[in-house]
Automatic annotation (TrEMBL):
CDD domains: DHOD_2_like. Signal peptide: none annotated. It comes from Galbibacter marinus. It is found in: Cell membrane; Membrane. Coiled coil: none annotated. This is Dihydroorotate dehydrogenase (quinone). InterPro entries: Aldolase_TIM, DHO_dehydrogenase, Dihydroorotate_DH_1_2, Dihydroorotate_DH_2, Dihydroorotate_DH_cat, Dihydroorotate_DH_CS. Residues 50-336 form the Dihydroorotate dehydrogenase catalytic domain. The keyword Cell membrane applies. Its cofactor is FMN.
Length: 338
């Protein structure tokens, strides 16, 4: 029904407007008595065999919603009804910011991809915290970044502010230095600044009664040498793991007319490269740390491929848009059949 009826209608309109419309519709429907239970009955797969314990947390299943979808932590409870084992909110910055000028979100229908140059648009950490106080038991990841106007030399301060504010309300943290849509942000992936940033967050983490897992989200465009640096940095700073990968700036073999738009490309064109990065990190580290695999998962087979490459958990975003909520159920059912 989704791919035959709902998606063709939604895809007739501007993608960013449809995103907001979909949020409003999901929120409204979940307020109707009995609808939340009906959605859970349709899409959730409840089975102890799906449970995973990763970096000290228990996930009811290994399929999560990637950051960027629920930027402002406004719909995580309702989205969890579709069967997600966890929801990652953000990217959040200390102060709300509008992001880049519109139009900034583009569908690549022929390639089953999306290009975005959103630019960390969000309402800021304070508003998100207020909504997170209403969490009804959803396992939450907090994806944090820096404000556009904050120079890289002062970036640690922004990440620290986000960490402190979110600490009581999220289960794990994700340090996002790999978005291509904030000027110079990816320079923070270089070995020296990244080690300093992660080291400072870990020092802060150790002052807490219960330190929380900190993960690093990396770009798919890193060279093997840079990926070896990532392995060394994770080992040195003792962070909990890596999310591989963010969107790509590559535009290889695309067919859609929007292919020349600037920004980060997600979806099916990213599938093979993100899997390559997962496999490289897993092998180079001798399975030394958990990896959350994300990028181009549009089918159960795509998810299984990521898990077999070395991922402990997977996340979806663009596949959720193209394939609909049935994708989560199909992945979980396929895992149970393995």
């Amino acid at each position: 029904m989704y791919k035959l009826i709902i998606r063709p209608i939604l895809f007739q309109f501007d993608p960013e407007k449809i995103h907001h419309f979909s949020f409003a519709a999901i929120s409204f429907l979940n307020k109707i008595p009995g609808v939340s239970a009906l959605i859970r009955a349709m899409f959730c797969v409840e089975d102890k065999r799906l449970e995973r314990e990763v970096f000290g947390l228990k996930f009811k299943n290994p399929v999560g919603l990637a950051a960027g979808f629920d930027k402002n932590a406004s719909l995580f409870n309702e989205l969890s009804n579709f069967g997600f084992g966890f929801v990652e909110i953000g990217t959040l910055t200390p102060v709300g910011q509008p992001g880049n000028p519109k139009k900034r979100l583009f569908r690549l229908k022929e390639d089953q991809g999306i290009i975005n140059r959103m630019g960390f648009n969000n309402e800021g950490i304070k508003d998100a915290v207020e909504r997170l106080k209403r969490n009804k038991g959803v396992l939450i990841g907090g994806n944090i970044g820096k404000n556009k106007n904050t120079p890289n030399e002062a970036a640690i301060s922004d990440y620290t502010i986000c960490f402190e504010a979110l600490y009581p309300y999220v289960d794990y943290f994700v340090v996002n230095v790999s978005s291509p849509n904030t000027p110079n942000l990816r320079a923070l992936q270089d070995k020296e600044p990244l080690t300093a940033l992660l080291g400072q967050l870990q020092l802060l983490n150790k002052t807490k009664d219960k330190p929380k897992p900190i993960l690093l989200k990396i770009a798919p465009d890193l060279t093997n040498e840079q990926l070896m640096d990532i392995v060394a940095i994770v080992t040195q700073t003792k962070i909990a793991g890596v999310i591989a990968t963010n969107t790509t700036i590559s535009r290889t073999a695309l067919q859609s007319e929007n292919k020349k738009e600037t920004g980060g490309l997600s979806g099916a064109p990213l599938k093979d490269r993100s899997t390559e990065v997962i496999r490289f990190l897993s092998q180079a580290s001798h399975q030394g740390f958990p990896i959350i695999g994300v990028g181009g998962i549009h089918s159960a087979e795509d998810a299984l491929e990521k898990l077999e490459a070395g991922a402990s958990l997977v996340q979806i975003y663009t596949g959720f848009i193209y394939q609909g909520p049935g994708l989560i159920k199909s992945i979980n059912k396929a895992i149970l059949k393995k």
